[in-house]
Design goal:
Layout: H1 3-16, H2 24-31, H3 35-46, H4 50-56, H5 59-79, E1 85-87, E2 90-96, H6 99-104, E3 110-118, E4 121-128, E5 131-137, H7 143-153, E6 158-161, H8 163-175, E7 181-186, H9 190-199, E8 208-209, H10 210-216, H11 223-231, E9 244-245, H12 258-278
Parallel strand pairs: 2-7, 3-6, 8-9
Antiparallel strand pairs: 1-2, 3-4, 4-5
Helix pairs in contact: 1-12, 10-11
Length: 279
Amino acid sequence: MSDYERIAKMIRYLDQFQGEQPSLQDLASFMGMSPHHLHRLFSSWASITPKDFLQCLTAAKARELLREGRSVLDTSLEVGLSGPGRLHDLCVKLEGATPGEIKSGGAEWEIRVGFADTPFGEACVAESPRGICHLSFLEGGDREVAWEKIRGEWPAAALAKDDERAAELLAGVFSGEPGKGLRALVRGTDFQVRVWQALIQVPAGSLVSYGQLAAAIGKPEASRAVGTAVGRNELAFLIPCHRVIRETGVIGNYRWGRDRKRAIIAWENGMRERSHASC
């Protein structure tokens, strides 16, 4: 069992018994490990303590992060949403595919597709000549489904398997190396692309609501349409749709699994706290 699988198992346990408010000892006993080993697991996975992890899963903490997210988006409104976004210390340049590129289905393109492990399980990433065009977490390790999804998006492109390049790309995405830039290519309407551009302005460790996101793009009445755009994101983690939750602080669903969404939120909090501690 990988570290992420252990984390997901603990999240399911905490959800099941949340009314009883399990202690760290209860959690360690459930996992069949000592409190010391539980602490080591969280330290190695996200530089976070078990206590901080439990706090990250509460609605109160989520509402606190929502308040921070509102401030971030207010600032983004002042400077505009067209610039590159931040992911840890990553610079993400997001571009929409042209109508011609979509119509041609990626004709004359070679798209490199590969699979590699991440802190949240195995992922599939595809890189086109214009940047990363697909990033998804695998459910049940089904690589063929991910491959065919990319084939459906770019039917005329030549797909080449390249796990080595995938590992390199994913290491960059999840390590957040300072100064490392990534290009991303998306397929969507102008409205959807604007929603995704707003999302990459939200830094790791902050959360926003659908209403806040709608207001950020100048469409405060369009929360439902924003939710649809968020749900159609094809670039897991890179376009951080996991940072969008309900106004009440309820985490809500996630295309790649609710447990994974909660794990990512906790992991990013750990990364942020470690970054602040080193300053």
